Fold this sequence. Notes:
Layout: E1 11-17, H1 23-34, E2 39-41, E3 50-57, H2 64-68, E4 72-80, E5 82-84, E6 93-96, H3 103-111, E7 115-119, E8 128-129, E9 132-133, H4 134-139, E10 149-162, E11 165-172, H5 178-189, E12 193-203, E13 206-207, H6 214-227, E14 242-243, E15 254-256, H7 262-266, E16 287-291, E17 297-304, E18 309-315
Parallel strand pairs: 3-12, 15-16
Antiparallel strand pairs: 1-3, 1-14, 2-3, 4-11, 4-12, 5-6, 7-10, 8-9, 10-11, 12-13, 16-17, 17-18
Helix pairs in contact: 1-6
Amino acid sequence: xxxxxxxxxxxxxxxxxxxxxxxxxxVAKLRGICKQKKIGHTGTLDPEAEGVLPVCLGRATRVCDxxxxxxKVYEAVLLLGKTTDTQDMTGTVLEEKQVTCSSGEVLExxxxxxxxxxxxxxxxxxxxxxxxxxxxxxxAGIEVERKPREITVFSIRVLKEELPExxxxxxxxxxxxxxxxCHDIGQKLGCGGCMKSxxxxxxxxxxxxxxxxxxxIEAQVQAVRGxxxxxxxxxADLPGLVKNTDCVFLQYPCSAVKGEFSRLLYNGNALKxxxxxxxHKEYQQTILRLYDENQLFAGIYRWDEKRKELKPVRIxxxxx
Length: 320
């Protein structure tokens, strides 16, 4: 049957990325721990930043770009009075000023950064201009013009204020640089500012309270291998650690394909509503999660009004 070939872990692990690791480091270490190559992360975190980093394994790597697009929540500490070339504490200090603004002025300035706006990406970032990473250019002492990008800051909540430091919770869209937000707030206040620390607390439905450190993941994997040394691991061997791929799409309704039409599902065909175990007219207005007769997640589908059929948007099972 399609979807059952090959033993590997298929699913998503909510990794707690620790300081000192790049997102690439996390993926490399997980490849070694899980003994499989097909692993990808869902959006970079700066090496010194910590927190939620969903990592996709096996067929779940097909959802990486979808998770990268999701909104995120961070807790950041803004240090006023200090401007650096990296916009955080890892860089060279360019300017230091006395912080003379009042608490009210700080709160007012921060509140002004909510909403949809344009943000100029920092030079020390992985973005590419003419095929070259900005951070590589920056290390070579080259600064290039960066086009502003539209971002949305849904909310900023001040958690603690002890000037010159301000701890903030930021809920924002993809592509938002919290370092740059801190820098821009400092510029608006006239004293400069940089990011002292960063903790990502949520990516889509993946939350900090459920994130697992690499050492814990390795311990769980080794425990299974200790019991069954020759076993090729699957997600079922690591319950509570590996989330099924469909967890990303639980906000959408679901249905299953009737057994007699399974072959059409496994071949990646568009599907007729009468081939499903359940069909409602409102499914035409949304994405639909589809499963096979054994409740194996097949993929997400969207209604094609012209052809009167469901067309696959993204398939997460191995096709026959």
